[in-house]
Fold this protein.
Amino acid sequence: MATRKPPARPEQKPRKADAPRRGNGGEPRQQAEDGYDTLTTAQGIPVSDNQNSLRAFERGPTLLEDFILREKITHFDHERIPERVVHARGSGAHGYFQLNKSLAKYTTARLFTETKVRTPVFARFSTVAGGAGSVDTPRDVRGFAVKFYTQEGNFDLVGNDFPVFAIQDAMKFPDLVHALKMEPDRAFPQAASAHDTFWDFVSLTPETWHMTLWAMSDRGLPRSLRMIEGFGIHTFRLVDKNGRSTFVKFHWRPHLGVQSHIWDEHMKIQHADNDFHRRDLFEAIQAGDFPAWDLGVQLFTEEQAAEFPFDHLDATKLIPEELVPVQLIGTMVLDRWPDNFFAETEQVAFCPANMIPGIDFSDDPLLQGRLFSYLDTQLLRLGGPNFTQLPINAPKCPFANHQRDGHMQITTPKGRAAYDPNSLSQPGDTTARETAAGFRSFRAAAGEDGKQRIRAELFADHFSQPRMFWNSLTDIERAHVVSALVFELSKVENEHIVVRTVAQARNIDEALAKRVADGLGMPLPARIPPAREPIDMLPSPALSILRNAKETLQGRAIGILVSEGSDVAQVNALRKAAEKAGAQVKLIGPKLHVALSDGKRRRLDGKVDGMPSLVFDAVGSVLSLDEARKLAKESAVIDFFRDAFGHLKAIAACGGTRAHIFKAAGIKPDAGVVEPEDTAGFVAAAKVRQWAREPTLRTLP
Ligand code: HDD
């Protein structure tokens, strides 16, 4: 009987033979000259044929005996682990934190006192509502979790990109998440808050309003994970060597400034690129354009806190930085993409209870509940208590204890005694004893009013701070909040929920509620009086993105549309000017390969339908008249410019583009449309959105 040979291995590029590579078990493996290891089973048995299973005869059944096939399939069948119950979709990166201002006056934590030390970090950014495979750009808050591998153990700052949270007490977390996630009977919508159960919960739970308003603002639509702020949200404590405590709130400030998309753009990016934020972070790090954030602290005393018109233990409240300034103390730089997504980004386990000496929790009831939840969920998600031994989770400082055994124990502890105190340990045994320098909880005074299920009095003020946020926004930002509320409520089927939501919004601001009602075409419902009437706080200009917008092309992307015969000198001049200003420039064409005016056929970065203007901050076009005439018939090209114009982007448009494509797209050039020869004008225009254009394109509610 003729035997068929396995298909030949496809041609492979030779790989650099670097340091001896290791198998999964960490043992050095035999490497062939082409850089490949010898393929083995998980038991190390060399495999001779990875293409065909073992069959009884040429066209016969597969044999159970084929342990190689069975092992391969079994392992594959078990590849998935439960996704995170929230924050399932995320992207992470390695980096370091460098302190430049010591807080030795306030804390013993070496992380915040030793300015010469670079502390390794792993950061993970996430959306909250969607599953692991959902898109990067829904309207949502973004998780901002940082694991500091300090010399005194791991410290996790598990925050978000908004400074406030939706609920005040961990008791409400499952309710909040059940209301936000897809509805349980129909299993939609995925990764969206625009549905009945979310707004039902919001309108029945007024404490959610502050964070909800942040989510409805353009903060819910970040341009890039490199351009979000981060917040520890809760009040924490710093504890000095005498055991004295100072309250602290943590802030991350992106070097690239805070920047957001607008709604239509953010939604359309979901179609253009599901992985928009992940790709953006990956490409920046791979290009050596490392994202960086300054770490800031707001420090305040118990006495100062007593004077605040809100409760500093209430996670739905922020402390305006006009009241307590933010001091910048150090910088985090993310400079290495993980080698393996699953091993690192998926298996990383952040936990607010990972706390180091010199820092401590406050009595914030939301934080207190979190101290339980994360370890609990990780025991399920990662399959047992030894997930702390995974390289991404293990401390990078020496550690030792008497914890033993359990599923997937990877270490091999030595010695007879796995308990403390003991008198049997020998040198070299895995044993340890406590130290005076260890973690000590701050000795807070105990309350005298007894055990109760209760919220502190000021927690009942749910509207002063949403009002402050609203009053801190520019007119454009407010219009976007109104549009977002109108959009979301238009997706709610139950009218009583819409009515209740608008009625509640009157407690934030009458004009806001009126504008939302008008946008929905409904009468303004009667106000629902709140549990506690709001006060008027001073606006906090620091909360507005636009008031603090950074005019820069650093970290931004420019797309230039070219085609057959495009003037190469003009393309290069435009590219050079944008790159000099810090932008990443991509050339796009109707086909992937084109010859510009120099006759050289080159591969472009993308094709216009696969790389639409949505993924750029500003665009240009350099086309011959003939090509422009031809391209004016292509819907992808028309959409390229219609979207760029509609999303308020600067456009460097050549004569052909104006004469033919703009005409087909119905675009009337304004001050944000410049000639491609005017490279300086283009760079200046590209640094900002053309906000003046917005009212000419749509009615702002
Ligand atoms: Fe949480 C994950 C942030 C309240 C329970 N949370 C999780 C992540 C972030 C946050 C960024 C993802 C971490 C990662 O990348 O792996 N969570 C917050 C913030 C909160 C907050 C800023 C309020 C200030 N969380 C919160 C409460 C509870 C949880 C009140 C429960 C009582 N969070 C969890 C969790 C998750 C989680 C269920 C899911 C996966 C995980 O922990 O490891 O335990």
